[in-house]
Amino acid sequence: MKLIYTGKTKEFTPELEKKVTGKLAKLSKFIEQRGEREAHIVHQIERRLHKVVIEVKFYDHMLIGEGADAELDTALCEAVDKLEIQTVKLRNRWRDTHRDAKGVRLAKEASEDNFVPAEEAAPQKPLRGSKNNGSGSKPKVFHIDYEEDRKPMTLDEAMLEMEGGQPYVVYRDAARGCLSVLVRRADGNYDLIES
């Protein structure tokens, strides 16, 4: 990260530059993903109080971290901490708004197309007397991703959701807060598995 220092009262010494680059090292991992950035550092001393302002332009936004303390190192740490908080918030907001909704929908449809019922997916167990022919085939595991931010539901709501023909429903129980699985048996009744 390129540093541009402005200070009326103190020179930007190589020792001070090392301290600042060390403190901005973690922040530069987030910021410099799209090319090298510039950090403008403004340092002032007012009544034995060091005031440090660090400005960085990131995704067309100006991030500003301000720190003030009697010691320069503490003021720098405070300014860098504020910059890190702003950077993480901005990155998360940018990632959430620019996530490709079409790609997520296609991945969800592909996982539904590859779904195989449990009876077909389960490998046949060899009999006790028979030996493995050395085929080395491993059982296939199918992952089905449901929406992660689903709200907790009651047992009745889970049974209503199973009316769509699903063989099972995994949900967080609203009353107890535990993870529960509701499974439809072959005779039409339900089994409830709670953790």
Describe this structure in words.
This protein is an alpha+beta fold and 195 residues long. It has 2 domains: 2-97, Ribosome hibernation promotion factor-like (Double Stranded RNA Binding Domain), CATH 3.30.160; 144-195, 2-Layer Sandwich (SHC Adaptor Protein), CATH 3.30.505. It is 34% helix and 26% strand. It contains 6 helices and 7 strands; from the N terminus they run E-H-H-E-E-E-H-H-H-H-E-E-E. The protein starts with a strand and ends with a strand. The model is unreliable at 125-131 (pLDDT under 50).
Map the helices and strands:
Layout: E1 2-7, H1 14-23, H2 25-31, E2 38-46, E3 49-58, E4 61-69, H3 72-97, H4 101-113, H5 118-121, H6 155-161, E5 168-172, E6 179-184, E7 190-194
Parallel strand pairs: 1-2
Antiparallel strand pairs: 2-3, 3-4, 5-6, 6-7
Index terms:
single chain; 195 residues; alpha+beta; Double Stranded RNA Binding Domain; SHC Adaptor Protein; four-stranded mixed sheet; three-stranded antiparallel sheet; 6 helices; elongated
Short description:
With about 200 residues, this protein is of the alpha+beta class. About 35% of the residues lie in helices and about 25% in strands. It has helices at about 15-25, 25-30, 70-95, 100-115, 120, 155-160, and strands at about 1-5, 40-45, 50-60, 60-70, 170, 180-185, 190-195.
